[in-house]
Hints:
The chain is mostly helical. The chain has helices spanning 3-34, 63-66, 70-78, 100-110.
Amino acid sequence: xxxxxxxxxxxxxxxxxxxxxxxxxxxxxxxxxxxxxxxxxxxxxxxxxxxxxxxxxxxxxxxxxxxxxxxxxxxxxxxxxxxxxxxxxxxxxxxxxxxxxxxxxxxxxxxxx
Length: 113
C-alpha cells in the first residue's frame, strides 16, 4: 500500500468515526434535553418530538439560524442571567445541574432542530 492509499484510508476512518461521534452526541444531547432531571427543556419549551411541552419559553426551532454562534447559545444555557438578569430560564451550568460537556451535547442536538 502506498502513502496515498494509506492517507485515504486514514481519512476515511476518521470521517466515519467522526460522524459516529457527532451522531452519538446528538442522541445524547436529545436525551439530556428531554430528561426531567437534567436539561428539562420541555418544562418551558416546545420541541418537535417532545411530550407535555411547556409554553413559557420560545419554541426550540431553527436553532442554528437563531444562534449561529454556538458560544452564544452555550452561554444562554450556562447562565442566561448574564444577558438578562430577569430571565426565567435557570442557570443550568452555573448551578451545576448540567456540565459543560452535557451543554455541548445539548447544543449539537438543538442544532438539528
